[in-house]
Amino acid sequence: MNKKEIPFRVGLGVSGGIAAYKAIEVLRLLQKSGCRVQVAMTRHATEFVQPLTFRALTDQYVLVDDYDEGNPDPIAHINFSQTIDLLLIVPATANILGKFANGIADDFLSSTYLAANAPVMVAPAMNVSMWDHPATQRNIEKLKNDGVHFVEPVSGELACKTVGTGKLEDVENIVRQALEILNRQKIEKPATNDLAGEKILITIGGTREAIDPVRFISNHSSGKMGFALAEAAQKRGAQVTAVCASTTADRPKGITIIDAISADAMHKAVRENLSAKSIFIGAAAVADFRPANVDEFKIKKTGLDRLNLELEKTADILAEVSAAKTAGMLVIGFAAETNDVVDFARSKMQRKDLDMVIANDISQKGAGFNTETNIATILIKSTGAQIDLPLMSKREMADKVLDEIANIRKSSAATTA
Ligand code: CTP
Questions:
Q1: pLDDT at residue 2 is higher than 50
Q2: 65 touches 71 (CB < 8 A)
Q3: Among 75, 168, 219, 309, who pairs with 206 as Cys (CB 3.0-4.6 Å)?
Q4: Where residue 337 sits, what CATH number does that domain have?
Protein backbone atom coordinates (compact mmCIF):
# COMPACT_ATOMS: atom_id res chain seq x y z
CA MET A 1 0.00 0.00 0.00
CA ASN A 2 1.11 3.55 -0.64
CA LYS A 3 1.86 4.80 2.86
CA LYS A 4 0.86 8.36 2.02
CA GLU A 5 -2.74 7.18 1.56
CA ILE A 6 -5.16 6.84 4.47
CA PRO A 7 -4.08 3.60 6.18
CA PHE A 8 -6.39 0.61 6.26
CA ARG A 9 -7.86 0.02 9.70
CA VAL A 10 -7.80 -3.60 10.77
CA GLY A 11 -9.52 -5.00 13.85
CA LEU A 12 -7.39 -8.00 14.80
CA GLY A 13 -9.36 -10.48 16.91
CA VAL A 14 -7.38 -13.09 18.81
CA SER A 15 -9.19 -16.11 20.20
CA GLY A 16 -7.88 -18.67 22.66
CA GLY A 17 -5.69 -21.25 20.97
CA ILE A 18 -2.02 -22.12 21.07
CA ALA A 19 -1.54 -20.33 17.72
CA ALA A 20 -2.44 -17.03 19.44
CA TYR A 21 1.27 -16.13 19.55
CA LYS A 22 1.28 -16.06 15.72
CA ALA A 23 -1.17 -13.15 15.83
CA ILE A 24 1.78 -11.03 16.99
CA GLU A 25 3.57 -11.70 13.70
CA VAL A 26 0.37 -11.00 11.75
CA LEU A 27 0.09 -7.68 13.58
CA ARG A 28 3.69 -6.76 12.71
CA LEU A 29 3.26 -7.66 9.04
CA LEU A 30 0.03 -5.67 8.79
CA GLN A 31 1.73 -2.68 10.37
CA LYS A 32 4.67 -3.00 7.97
CA SER A 33 2.14 -2.92 5.11
CA GLY A 34 0.88 0.40 6.40
CA CYS A 35 -2.26 -0.80 8.25
CA ARG A 36 -3.44 0.69 11.51
CA VAL A 37 -4.33 -2.23 13.77
CA GLN A 38 -6.33 -2.41 16.98
CA VAL A 39 -6.49 -5.70 18.86
CA ALA A 40 -9.40 -7.43 20.59
CA MET A 41 -8.90 -10.66 22.50
CA THR A 42 -11.14 -13.28 24.03
CA ARG A 43 -10.61 -13.94 27.74
CA HIS A 44 -9.06 -17.34 26.92
CA ALA A 45 -6.67 -15.79 24.41
CA THR A 46 -5.16 -13.76 27.25
CA GLU A 47 -4.10 -17.07 28.84
CA PHE A 48 -1.83 -17.64 25.84
CA VAL A 49 -0.55 -14.10 25.15
CA GLN A 50 -0.64 -11.10 27.45
CA PRO A 51 -2.71 -8.12 26.23
CA LEU A 52 0.30 -6.03 27.22
CA THR A 53 2.25 -7.42 24.26
CA PHE A 54 -0.35 -6.14 21.81
CA ARG A 55 -0.78 -2.91 23.72
CA ALA A 56 2.94 -2.20 23.50
CA LEU A 57 3.00 -2.98 19.78
CA THR A 58 -0.12 -1.00 18.85
CA ASP A 59 0.05 1.73 21.46
CA GLN A 60 -3.67 1.22 21.99
CA TYR A 61 -5.89 -0.30 24.67
CA VAL A 62 -6.48 -4.01 24.01
CA LEU A 63 -10.16 -4.84 24.22
CA VAL A 64 -11.17 -8.00 26.04
CA ASP A 65 -14.42 -7.09 27.78
CA ASP A 66 -16.74 -4.09 27.50
CA TYR A 67 -17.07 -4.24 31.28
CA ASP A 68 -13.36 -4.28 32.14
CA GLU A 69 -12.48 -1.55 34.60
CA GLY A 70 -9.67 -0.14 32.48
CA ASN A 71 -11.77 -0.01 29.30
CA PRO A 72 -11.86 3.66 28.27
CA ASP A 73 -14.96 3.22 26.07
CA PRO A 74 -18.30 2.09 27.59
CA ILE A 75 -19.70 0.81 24.26
CA ALA A 76 -16.43 -0.32 22.83
CA HIS A 77 -17.79 -3.17 20.67
CA ILE A 78 -19.94 -0.71 18.71
CA ASN A 79 -17.24 1.92 18.25
CA PHE A 80 -14.57 -0.68 17.48
CA SER A 81 -16.76 -2.46 14.92
CA GLN A 82 -17.71 0.76 13.12
CA THR A 83 -14.18 2.07 12.68
CA ILE A 84 -12.50 -0.85 10.94
CA ASP A 85 -12.13 -1.80 7.27
CA LEU A 86 -11.61 -5.48 8.07
CA LEU A 87 -12.22 -7.73 11.07
CA LEU A 88 -9.48 -10.38 10.96
CA ILE A 89 -9.55 -13.27 13.44
CA VAL A 90 -6.21 -15.02 14.06
CA PRO A 91 -6.44 -17.70 15.27
CA ALA A 92 -10.14 -18.56 15.06
CA THR A 93 -10.99 -21.39 17.44
CA ALA A 94 -13.87 -23.84 16.94
CA ASN A 95 -15.64 -22.00 19.77
CA ILE A 96 -15.47 -18.54 18.19
CA LEU A 97 -16.57 -19.96 14.81
CA GLY A 98 -19.54 -21.55 16.57
CA LYS A 99 -20.48 -18.28 18.24
CA PHE A 100 -20.15 -16.26 15.03
CA ALA A 101 -22.17 -18.81 13.05
CA ASN A 102 -25.00 -18.82 15.56
CA GLY A 103 -25.16 -15.14 16.45
CA ILE A 104 -24.04 -15.62 20.05
CA ALA A 105 -22.67 -12.35 21.41
CA ASP A 106 -21.55 -13.09 24.95
CA ASP A 107 -18.15 -11.39 24.93
CA PHE A 108 -16.39 -8.48 23.29
CA LEU A 109 -15.17 -10.27 20.16
CA SER A 110 -18.45 -12.05 19.36
CA SER A 111 -20.43 -8.81 19.93
CA THR A 112 -18.01 -7.00 17.64
CA TYR A 113 -18.59 -9.62 14.92
CA LEU A 114 -22.35 -9.05 15.06
CA ALA A 115 -22.01 -5.28 15.06
CA ALA A 116 -19.42 -5.09 12.26
CA ASN A 117 -20.32 -3.90 8.77
CA ALA A 118 -16.77 -4.45 7.54
CA PRO A 119 -15.80 -7.69 5.81
CA VAL A 120 -14.70 -10.48 8.14
CA MET A 121 -11.82 -12.88 7.54
CA VAL A 122 -11.06 -15.81 9.82
CA ALA A 123 -7.93 -17.95 9.99
CA PRO A 124 -8.91 -21.06 11.96
CA ALA A 125 -6.46 -23.23 13.90
CA MET A 126 -7.41 -26.21 16.02
CA ASN A 127 -6.98 -29.91 16.62
CA VAL A 128 -7.82 -32.05 13.56
CA SER A 129 -10.78 -33.83 15.20
CA MET A 130 -12.25 -30.49 16.24
CA TRP A 131 -11.79 -29.20 12.68
CA ASP A 132 -13.34 -32.34 11.13
CA HIS A 133 -16.26 -32.44 13.56
CA PRO A 134 -19.61 -32.08 11.77
CA ALA A 135 -20.58 -29.26 14.16
CA THR A 136 -17.49 -27.24 13.18
CA GLN A 137 -17.99 -27.98 9.49
CA ARG A 138 -21.64 -26.95 9.77
CA ASN A 139 -20.61 -23.66 11.35
CA ILE A 140 -18.01 -23.05 8.64
CA GLU A 141 -20.62 -23.65 5.94
CA LYS A 142 -22.99 -21.19 7.62
CA LEU A 143 -20.29 -18.55 7.93
CA LYS A 144 -19.28 -18.95 4.27
CA ASN A 145 -22.93 -18.46 3.33
CA ASP A 146 -22.94 -15.32 5.47
CA GLY A 147 -20.02 -13.99 3.40
CA VAL A 148 -17.18 -14.61 5.87
CA HIS A 149 -13.80 -15.10 4.16
CA PHE A 150 -11.72 -18.08 5.25
CA VAL A 151 -7.98 -18.59 5.26
CA GLU A 152 -8.22 -22.37 5.49
CA PRO A 153 -5.92 -24.15 7.94
CA VAL A 154 -3.22 -26.35 6.45
CA SER A 155 -2.19 -29.91 7.11
CA GLY A 156 0.83 -30.59 9.32
CA GLU A 157 1.95 -31.52 12.79
CA LEU A 158 -0.33 -29.80 15.28
CA ALA A 159 0.51 -28.50 18.74
CA CYS A 160 -1.30 -31.54 20.19
CA LYS A 161 1.25 -33.76 18.32
CA THR A 162 -1.35 -35.17 15.97
CA VAL A 163 -0.96 -34.77 12.22
CA GLY A 164 -3.78 -33.46 10.05
CA THR A 165 -5.64 -30.35 8.96
CA GLY A 166 -5.89 -27.67 11.61
CA LYS A 167 -2.57 -25.83 11.49
CA LEU A 168 -2.80 -22.06 11.08
CA GLU A 169 -1.89 -20.99 7.53
CA ASP A 170 1.48 -19.17 7.20
CA VAL A 171 1.23 -15.67 8.60
CA GLU A 172 2.50 -14.18 5.32
CA ASN A 173 -0.38 -15.84 3.45
CA ILE A 174 -2.92 -14.63 5.99
CA VAL A 175 -1.69 -11.06 5.65
CA ARG A 176 -1.55 -11.28 1.85
CA GLN A 177 -5.19 -12.42 1.71
CA ALA A 178 -6.26 -9.75 4.19
CA LEU A 179 -4.59 -7.07 2.06
CA GLU A 180 -6.31 -8.43 -1.05
CA ILE A 181 -9.70 -7.89 0.59
CA LEU A 182 -8.73 -4.42 1.78
CA ASN A 183 -7.43 -3.42 -1.66
CA ARG A 184 -10.52 -4.82 -3.36
CA GLN A 185 -12.69 -2.56 -1.23
CA LYS A 186 -10.58 0.44 -2.16
CA ILE A 187 -11.15 -0.03 -5.89
CA GLU A 188 -14.87 -0.42 -5.41
CA LYS A 189 -16.67 2.69 -6.51
CA PRO A 190 -17.98 4.94 -3.79
CA ALA A 191 -21.60 4.06 -3.14
CA THR A 192 -24.07 5.40 -5.66
CA ASN A 193 -27.69 4.44 -5.48
CA ASP A 194 -28.30 4.39 -9.22
CA LEU A 195 -29.84 0.91 -9.17
CA ALA A 196 -32.26 1.61 -6.32
CA GLY A 197 -35.64 0.04 -7.07
CA GLU A 198 -34.19 -2.59 -9.44
CA LYS A 199 -34.96 -6.20 -8.62
CA ILE A 200 -32.32 -8.41 -10.16
CA LEU A 201 -32.41 -12.16 -10.71
CA ILE A 202 -29.00 -13.55 -11.65
CA THR A 203 -27.83 -17.08 -12.38
CA ILE A 204 -24.31 -17.90 -11.15
CA GLY A 205 -21.81 -20.77 -11.29
CA GLY A 206 -21.42 -23.96 -13.28
CA THR A 207 -24.21 -26.52 -13.39
CA ARG A 208 -23.54 -30.18 -12.61
CA GLU A 209 -25.34 -32.82 -14.64
CA ALA A 210 -25.45 -36.21 -12.95
CA ILE A 211 -24.25 -39.30 -14.81
CA ASP A 212 -24.79 -41.62 -11.84
CA PRO A 213 -24.87 -41.04 -8.05
CA VAL A 214 -21.08 -40.44 -8.08
CA ARG A 215 -20.19 -38.65 -11.33
CA PHE A 216 -21.33 -35.55 -13.11
CA ILE A 217 -20.56 -33.37 -16.13
CA SER A 218 -19.66 -29.78 -15.30
CA ASN A 219 -17.43 -26.87 -16.31
CA HIS A 220 -14.80 -24.53 -14.87
CA SER A 221 -17.09 -21.73 -13.73
CA SER A 222 -16.23 -20.43 -10.23
CA GLY A 223 -19.07 -17.91 -9.91
CA LYS A 224 -16.58 -15.04 -9.40
CA MET A 225 -18.00 -12.80 -12.15
CA GLY A 226 -21.60 -13.51 -11.12
CA PHE A 227 -20.95 -12.81 -7.44
CA ALA A 228 -19.00 -9.66 -8.34
CA LEU A 229 -22.05 -8.42 -10.28
CA ALA A 230 -24.44 -9.40 -7.49
CA GLU A 231 -22.33 -7.65 -4.86
CA ALA A 232 -21.79 -4.50 -6.91
CA ALA A 233 -25.51 -4.26 -7.82
CA GLN A 234 -26.53 -4.70 -4.20
CA LYS A 235 -24.11 -1.92 -3.18
CA ARG A 236 -25.74 0.34 -5.81
CA GLY A 237 -29.17 -0.12 -4.29
CA ALA A 238 -30.61 -3.11 -6.17
CA GLN A 239 -32.30 -6.06 -4.52
CA VAL A 240 -30.48 -9.13 -5.76
CA THR A 241 -31.57 -12.77 -5.86
CA ALA A 242 -28.96 -15.24 -7.11
CA VAL A 243 -29.72 -18.74 -8.33
CA CYS A 244 -26.45 -20.59 -7.82
CA ALA A 245 -25.11 -23.83 -9.25
CA SER A 246 -21.64 -25.01 -8.21
CA THR A 247 -19.42 -22.12 -7.12
CA THR A 248 -16.06 -21.80 -5.40
CA ALA A 249 -15.97 -18.01 -5.02
CA ASP A 250 -16.89 -16.26 -1.76
CA ARG A 251 -20.59 -15.44 -1.51
CA PRO A 252 -21.22 -11.75 -0.87
CA LYS A 253 -23.35 -10.56 2.01
CA GLY A 254 -26.74 -8.94 1.49
CA ILE A 255 -28.05 -10.97 -1.44
CA THR A 256 -30.63 -13.76 -1.44
CA ILE A 257 -29.15 -17.05 -2.61
CA ILE A 258 -31.09 -20.01 -3.96
CA ASP A 259 -29.04 -23.14 -4.56
CA ALA A 260 -29.85 -25.03 -7.76
CA ILE A 261 -27.13 -27.38 -8.84
CA SER A 262 -28.31 -28.74 -12.21
CA ALA A 263 -29.56 -26.98 -15.34
CA ASP A 264 -32.99 -28.39 -14.62
CA ALA A 265 -33.01 -27.18 -10.98
CA MET A 266 -31.76 -23.77 -12.13
CA HIS A 267 -34.49 -23.62 -14.77
CA LYS A 268 -37.15 -24.33 -12.11
CA ALA A 269 -35.68 -21.86 -9.62
CA VAL A 270 -35.57 -19.10 -12.26
CA ARG A 271 -39.20 -19.73 -13.22
CA GLU A 272 -40.26 -19.61 -9.57
CA ASN A 273 -38.39 -16.40 -8.81
CA LEU A 274 -38.73 -14.35 -11.96
CA SER A 275 -41.98 -12.63 -11.11
CA ALA A 276 -41.65 -8.85 -10.46
CA LYS A 277 -37.95 -8.81 -11.38
CA SER A 278 -36.77 -5.87 -13.47
CA ILE A 279 -33.44 -7.30 -14.65
CA PHE A 280 -32.37 -10.87 -15.45
CA ILE A 281 -28.68 -11.66 -15.86
CA GLY A 282 -27.59 -15.09 -17.09
CA ALA A 283 -24.09 -15.29 -15.66
CA ALA A 284 -24.15 -19.04 -15.04
CA ALA A 285 -22.35 -21.52 -17.25
CA VAL A 286 -25.35 -23.73 -17.84
CA ALA A 287 -24.84 -27.14 -19.40
CA ASP A 288 -26.34 -27.17 -22.88
CA PHE A 289 -26.67 -30.97 -22.68
CA ARG A 290 -27.19 -33.46 -19.84
CA PRO A 291 -27.10 -37.27 -19.70
CA ALA A 292 -30.39 -38.54 -21.08
CA ASN A 293 -30.51 -41.30 -18.46
CA VAL A 294 -29.10 -40.95 -14.96
CA ASP A 295 -28.04 -44.33 -13.60
CA GLU A 296 -29.58 -45.13 -10.25
CA PHE A 297 -26.47 -47.08 -9.23
CA LYS A 298 -22.79 -46.34 -9.71
CA ILE A 299 -21.67 -47.43 -13.19
CA LYS A 300 -19.03 -50.18 -12.86
CA LYS A 301 -16.17 -50.38 -15.34
CA THR A 302 -15.83 -54.18 -15.15
CA GLY A 303 -16.56 -55.67 -18.56
CA LEU A 304 -16.63 -52.26 -20.30
CA ASP A 305 -13.93 -51.03 -22.70
CA ARG A 306 -15.95 -48.12 -23.91
CA LEU A 307 -18.92 -46.26 -22.50
CA ASN A 308 -21.27 -44.14 -24.57
CA LEU A 309 -23.21 -41.42 -22.86
CA GLU A 310 -26.31 -40.18 -24.57
CA LEU A 311 -26.92 -36.50 -23.95
CA GLU A 312 -30.10 -34.52 -24.33
CA LYS A 313 -30.54 -30.78 -24.64
CA THR A 314 -31.35 -28.69 -21.58
CA ALA A 315 -33.79 -25.79 -21.60
CA ASP A 316 -32.16 -22.49 -22.59
CA ILE A 317 -33.04 -20.47 -19.50
CA LEU A 318 -31.86 -17.14 -20.87
CA ALA A 319 -33.78 -17.53 -24.15
CA GLU A 320 -36.91 -18.55 -22.26
CA VAL A 321 -36.73 -15.55 -19.90
CA SER A 322 -36.17 -13.26 -22.84
CA ALA A 323 -39.13 -14.69 -24.78
CA ALA A 324 -41.41 -14.04 -21.80
CA LYS A 325 -40.00 -10.68 -20.69
CA THR A 326 -42.33 -8.03 -19.39
CA ALA A 327 -42.25 -4.34 -20.41
CA GLY A 328 -39.20 -2.53 -19.13
CA MET A 329 -37.38 -5.69 -18.10
CA LEU A 330 -33.75 -5.99 -19.17
CA VAL A 331 -32.39 -9.41 -20.12
CA ILE A 332 -28.63 -9.73 -20.17
CA GLY A 333 -26.50 -12.68 -21.21
CA PHE A 334 -22.88 -13.77 -21.26
CA ALA A 335 -21.07 -15.30 -24.19
CA ALA A 336 -17.91 -17.24 -23.41
CA GLU A 337 -16.20 -17.93 -26.71
CA THR A 338 -12.84 -19.09 -28.00
CA ASN A 339 -12.98 -17.60 -31.52
CA ASP A 340 -14.91 -14.99 -33.52
CA VAL A 341 -15.95 -13.68 -30.12
CA VAL A 342 -17.80 -10.50 -31.07
CA ASP A 343 -19.53 -12.09 -34.10
CA PHE A 344 -20.79 -15.04 -32.05
CA ALA A 345 -21.84 -12.74 -29.22
CA ARG A 346 -23.72 -10.46 -31.61
CA SER A 347 -25.58 -13.38 -33.15
CA LYS A 348 -26.41 -14.67 -29.64
CA MET A 349 -27.82 -11.24 -28.79
CA GLN A 350 -30.06 -11.32 -31.86
CA ARG A 351 -31.09 -14.97 -31.53
CA LYS A 352 -32.03 -14.68 -27.87
CA ASP A 353 -33.25 -11.07 -28.24
CA LEU A 354 -31.02 -9.80 -25.42
CA ASP A 355 -30.64 -6.19 -24.26
CA MET A 356 -26.96 -6.67 -23.53
CA VAL A 357 -24.29 -9.34 -23.98
CA ILE A 358 -20.99 -9.51 -22.15
CA ALA A 359 -18.59 -11.43 -24.38
CA ASN A 360 -15.38 -13.02 -23.16
CA ASP A 361 -12.61 -14.52 -25.21
CA ILE A 362 -11.79 -17.30 -22.75
CA SER A 363 -8.64 -18.22 -24.69
CA GLN A 364 -7.01 -14.95 -23.58
CA LYS A 365 -4.75 -14.99 -20.49
CA GLY A 366 -6.52 -13.34 -17.55
CA ALA A 367 -10.03 -13.79 -18.96
CA GLY A 368 -12.87 -16.23 -18.43
CA PHE A 369 -13.34 -19.02 -15.92
CA ASN A 370 -11.88 -19.20 -12.45
CA THR A 371 -9.60 -16.15 -12.68
CA GLU A 372 -9.67 -12.98 -10.57
CA THR A 373 -9.61 -10.85 -13.71
CA ASN A 374 -11.50 -10.62 -16.98
CA ILE A 375 -11.33 -9.04 -20.43
CA ALA A 376 -14.66 -8.44 -22.14
CA THR A 377 -16.65 -6.69 -24.82
CA ILE A 378 -20.08 -5.34 -23.93
CA LEU A 379 -22.63 -5.25 -26.74
CA ILE A 380 -25.76 -3.15 -26.31
CA LYS A 381 -28.87 -3.77 -28.41
CA SER A 382 -30.58 -0.37 -28.08
CA THR A 383 -27.59 1.71 -29.20
CA GLY A 384 -25.61 -0.87 -31.17
CA ALA A 385 -22.63 0.11 -29.02
CA GLN A 386 -19.59 -2.12 -28.61
CA ILE A 387 -17.55 -1.33 -25.48
CA ASP A 388 -14.18 -3.03 -25.15
CA LEU A 389 -13.07 -3.52 -21.54
CA PRO A 390 -9.35 -4.23 -21.05
CA LEU A 391 -7.92 -6.58 -18.40
CA MET A 392 -9.32 -5.64 -14.99
CA SER A 393 -10.56 -7.34 -11.82
CA LYS A 394 -13.97 -8.97 -12.04
CA ARG A 395 -15.21 -6.61 -9.33
CA GLU A 396 -14.16 -3.57 -11.39
CA MET A 397 -15.73 -5.09 -14.47
CA ALA A 398 -18.98 -5.65 -12.58
CA ASP A 399 -19.25 -1.90 -12.02
CA LYS A 400 -18.53 -1.19 -15.70
CA VAL A 401 -21.36 -3.53 -16.71
CA LEU A 402 -23.69 -1.93 -14.16
CA ASP A 403 -22.71 1.55 -15.44
CA GLU A 404 -24.06 0.47 -18.84
CA ILE A 405 -27.26 -0.88 -17.30
CA ALA A 406 -27.74 2.43 -15.47
CA ASN A 407 -27.12 4.28 -18.77
CA ILE A 408 -29.79 2.21 -20.56
CA ARG A 409 -32.23 3.10 -17.78
CA LYS A 410 -31.29 6.80 -17.97
CA SER A 411 -31.75 7.02 -21.73
CA SER A 412 -35.07 5.17 -21.72
CA ALA A 413 -36.30 7.51 -18.93
CA ALA A 414 -35.21 10.48 -21.08
CA THR A 415 -37.08 9.05 -24.11
CA THR A 416 -40.30 8.51 -22.18
CA ALA A 417 -40.11 11.94 -20.49
N1 CTP B 1 -27.68 -20.07 -20.89
C2 CTP B 1 -28.84 -20.40 -20.23
N3 CTP B 1 -29.33 -21.67 -20.29
C4 CTP B 1 -28.72 -22.61 -21.02
C5 CTP B 1 -27.53 -22.29 -21.72
C6 CTP B 1 -27.04 -21.00 -21.62
O7 CTP B 1 -29.42 -19.54 -19.54
N8 CTP B 1 -29.22 -23.83 -21.06
C9 CTP B 1 -27.18 -18.68 -20.84
C10 CTP B 1 -25.87 -18.49 -20.10
O11 CTP B 1 -26.08 -18.18 -18.73
C12 CTP B 1 -25.24 -17.32 -20.86
C13 CTP B 1 -25.76 -17.47 -22.27
O14 CTP B 1 -26.92 -18.30 -22.16
O15 CTP B 1 -25.73 -16.08 -20.38
C16 CTP B 1 -24.79 -18.01 -23.24
O17 CTP B 1 -24.70 -19.34 -23.17
P18 CTP B 1 -24.23 -20.28 -24.40
O19 CTP B 1 -24.32 -21.68 -23.94
O20 CTP B 1 -22.89 -19.82 -24.89
O21 CTP B 1 -25.28 -19.90 -25.51
P22 CTP B 1 -25.77 -20.74 -26.75
O23 CTP B 1 -26.85 -19.95 -27.34
O24 CTP B 1 -26.11 -22.10 -26.29
O25 CTP B 1 -24.58 -20.74 -27.77
P26 CTP B 1 -23.46 -21.81 -28.17
O27 CTP B 1 -23.70 -22.04 -29.58
O28 CTP B 1 -22.18 -21.08 -27.89
O29 CTP B 1 -23.61 -23.03 -27.30
A1: no
A2: yes
A3: 219
A4: 3.40.50.10300
